[in-house]
Design goal:
The protein is an all-alpha fold and about 100 residues long. The chain has four helices and no strands. The chain has a domain of about 70 residues. About 80% of the residues lie in helices and about 0% in strands.
């Protein structure tokens, strides 16, 4: 069963590096959904908990566990970058209104 979960995680995880690069290059999180990214993060956390509860402490050496961690880290990175640029844009807008 782990092979199918692993393939799913690889497929889902393949899109996040390009999303991160796009966020960094554009410095504009327009079109990003914080609710969507939050749900994806929650899904990966649930998958990690499920994987750990099924396989116990042996899961830490399992490649599927590390795919979950990698995917979660990428989504969290995109979330943090998007939030940072969103906050920065709001500050810039507020500063330009005062000027």
């Amino acid at each position: 069963m782990d092979i199918w979960v692993g393939i799913m995680l690889i497929c889902f995880g393949a899109s996040w590096p390009s999303a991160i690069v796009k966020t960094i290059r554009a410095k504009n999180p327009a079109g990003k959904s914080f609710i969507f990214m939050s749900l994806v993060i929650l899904g990966y956390i649930s998958g990690i908990i499920g994987h750990l509860s099924r396989n116990g402490s042996a899961s830490f050496g399992d490649w599927v566990f590390w795919l979950y961690i990698l995917d979660l880290a990428m989504v969290a990175t995109d979330f943090v970058l998007s939030f940072y640029y969103h906050t920065l844009r709001k500050k810039e807008a507020a500063a330009s209104e005062k000027a």
